[in-house]
Specification:
Pfam families: PPR_3 (PF13812), Rib_mS39_PPR (PF22330)
Subcellular location: Mitochondrion
Low-confidence stretches: 1-9, 193-214
Number of strands: 0
Oligomer: single chain
Largest sheet: none
Shape: elongated
InterPro entries: PPR_rpt, PTCD3, Rib_mS39_PPR, TPR-like_helical_dom_sf
Organism: Tetraodon nigroviridis (Spotted green pufferfish)
Structural class: mainly alpha
Number of helices: 31
GO biological process, one term: regulation of translation
Distance between the termini: 132 Å
Helix content: 55-70%
């Protein structure tokens, strides 16, 4: 009976198991169905997405990382024109811009040959510009056309012709002409390639007016003022244009007088007018408290006239506070708090002006770094956009604070922010980028481990940064500190490519580091090859005049060749002391003794005799000891022994 019951139990167990599985499946199916119904209820078909014509290119660009070994994008078409140093970078950039200007000249001079637009999407700069006026008759349409083409002198002439003809010019056209005159200071616009700022930074210390960006170029009773006074009805826009033009071109006192006239006529200034007046406040007041009182009075008038401030308003206040001395710090923090209360997010220029208020190069301290840390905590991970012309000053100024405070961690946080999205564009032009990366690299060399320094060195050079002599000197000091002198030959190759092989002090420092201490044979051999390459540069073997030979460079190269067992080449370099009219150091720092040891190991008695004669030629104190050692250690002929004996007895220090 037990045998018969067993199959029954197995059958029941089998049936129970399958029923449980079926129940589980049903529960799962029911759950899936419920979820499907729930998802079907909330499913929303998205609207059609319209992509820009550059969307595919932008998506592809995101898949490619930057190659640190490549040069800047504008130089990749022709490898021959890849700049090797900052001088070539500037030269090739100017050459490229000159070629672009020449091409633009031909396109605009002969527009009939450039009517076909091949670019997709359309690229306006590749097509001819309308630079010549088409309407010749005296009419308001001709005046409008000249204003649109920014022909200042021609527009004024056309306006005067209309007045002489008794033609009434509309208020809108007159206002556009006034805007043009005020913007350019009643002068024809200067071409971009003729901008004097392109000549590079000035070494002369600027005065306050130059610091504030003010130029004394506003002429008394110019066409802008004349046309303004001819207006039958002057409104806020006309006053604003003239006030802003006066401030921009240096007539700040007249601008404030015109603002008083605006108030007397019961008009309300706009926010742009207030921004210009605030930025000019330090130029019309001498004392710090008077400057701040004027700024505060303008802000109070904005509030009374119900003019809503914008980002540029607060940036103008912060910028002006840099010239308010001890009053600047408390009012700067108050200004920043007011910005946040109004829901206006500070831009990089706001933070730049704030740091400039609290940070002075002569009085660096932890408090300044603390302020920068708070700023970086707010900016961390954000993708930034340019909202103010002064935004480009922030990163280089912040990195200077890190360098002066030797704060490596803060420097890394600034570099991380630069690498977010397109924030690198806010570094400014190539000159400002060079300043930023130069300070960052200096900070790395000063505070970071040499392996990290070399990693950043390969990452930054030459794609982002062409180090100046000080940058190379910082790298040499970092290698010396961490005893990584084996990298020096590679640094020398980079010095040659960067154009620093003609800097005598750098070459001597490099040779001194290589010659200071003995190294393993393989390193010593690479040092010897490097020394011979340096010798070729000093000899000018490539047709280029190199730095002059010095006693230090001759001694170092000789020592390096001796340590690599290149005695003949070392002897040839030693003879350059005579041909180059250089006197070996009085002690020779053991150089001649080392040379005598090599002669002993290679059993070259004649070379030992010549070495003692060489020492005697310069009346070196080591002559007597060298002669004594040579007499004792070498198997000499009678003639050689006689020479050495004579030198030994006559070796006296010369005056």
């Amino acid at each position: 009976s037990d045998n018969m019951a067993a199959p029954g139990r197995h059958a029941c167990q089998f049936l129970r198991t399958h029923l449980e599985q079926l129940w589980c499946y049903r529960r799962k199916a029911s759950s899936v169905q419920k979820n499907a119904l729930a998802s079907a209820e909330v499913l929303a078909i998205p609207r059609k997405k319209t992509w820009s014509k550059e969307a595919v290119l932008e998506a592809l660009a995101l898949t490619v990382t930057k190659d640190p070994t490549s040069y800047a994008y504008q130089f990749q078409d022709d490898p021959y024109l890849s700049p090797q140093n900052s001088a070539e970078f500037k030269l090739y950039s100017l050459s490229q811009e000159s070629g672009r200007s020449a091409a633009k000249y031909f396109v605009n001079t002969f527009p009939k040959f450039f009517t076909k637009d091949f670019a997709e999407p359309h690229i306006p700069c590749l097509m001819p510009e309308s630079v010549a006026a088409e309407t010749e008759e005296v009419s308001e349409e001709a005046l409008r056309e000249r204003v649109k083409l920014r022909k200042v002198t021609a527009a004024v002439t056309s306006y005067d012709q209309l007045l002489q003809a008794g033609v009434a010019v509309s208020k809108e056209t007159t206002q556009e002409l006034l805007d043009l005159l005020c913007f350019y200071g009643d002068r024809d616009p200067v071409p971009e390639d003729a901008d004097p700022s392109a000549e590079g930074p000035k070494t002369r210390k600027p005065n306050l007016r130059q610091v504030l960006g003010l130029k004394l170029s506003w002429k008394e009773d110019n066409n802008a003022e004349r046309i303004f006074h001819l207006l039958p009805e002057k409104d806020t826009r006309s006053y604003s244009a003239l006030i802003r033009g006066m401030v921009k071109h240096g007539a700040t006192a007249k601008a404030f007088g015109l603002y008083t006239d605006l108030l007397n006529n019961r008009l309300v200034a706009d926010v742009h007018t207030f921004n210009s007046l605030i930025s000019a406040a330090p130029d019309v007041r001498e004392k710090y408290n008077e400057r701040w009182d004027l700024i505060a009075d303008l802000l109070k008038q904005m509030s009374q006239q119900k003019v809503q401030p914008n980002l540029q308003t607060f940036n103008a206040v912060l910028k002006a506070l840099k010239h308010c001395g001890h009053l600047a710090r408390p009012h700067a923090l108050q200004t920043l708090s007011e910005m946040r209360a109004l829901g206006i997010a500070p831009s990089l220029a706001s933070y730049y002006h704030l740091l400039a208020v609290f940070y002075k190069q002569s009085s660096s301290g932890q408090g300044n770094a603390d302020i920068l840390q708070e700023v970086m905590a707010e900016l961390k991970g954000r993708s930034l956009e340019c909202q103010d012309p002064d935004d480009v000053h922030f990163f280089s100024h912040a990195m200077r604070i890190c360098l002066d405070n030797k704060d490596l961690e803060l420097g890394y946080s600034i570099q991380s922010l630069v690498e977010v999205g397109d924030n690198w564009r806010l570094l400014g032009d190539s000159y400002r980028q060079s300043i930023y990366y130069g300070r960052f690299f200096n900070l790395l060399c000063m505070m970071e481990h040499v392996d990290a320094v070399l990693k950043w060195y390969r990452r930054l050079i030459p794609s982002l940064y062409y180090p100046k002599p000080q940058g190379v000197r910082d790298l040499l000091q970092a290698l010396d500190t961490d005893n990584r002198l084996d990298v020096l030959p590679t640094v020398w190759k980079d010095m040659r490519s960067l154009g620093h092989d003609n800097k005598a002090d750098l070459v001597e420092e490099l040779l001194t580091l290589m010659a200071r201490d003995p190294q393993p044979p393989e390193v010593q051999e690479s040092f010897a090859k490097c020394a011979l390459d340096i010798k070729g540069v000093l000899d000018g073997d490539r047709g280029r005049l190199g730095p002059e030979w010095s006693t230090s460079s001759l001694s170092s190269i000789t020592r390096l060749l001796l340590r690599a067992n290149r005695s003949q080449q070392a002897w040839d370099v030693l003879q350059l002391f005579k041909s180059k009219n250089r006197v070996p150091p009085s002690r020779s720092e053991g150089l001649l003794e080392d040379f005598l040891s090599v002669c002993r190991s290679e059993t070259i008695p004649q070379r030992a005799v010549e070495l003692v004669q060489f020492s005697a030629t310069f009346c070196l104190p080591a002559t007597h000891q060298l002669a004594t050692s040579a007499l004792a250690d070498f198997d000499l002929t009678d003639e050689q022994r006689a020479i050495l004996t004579g030198l030994q007895t006559s070796a006296e220090p010369c005056d």
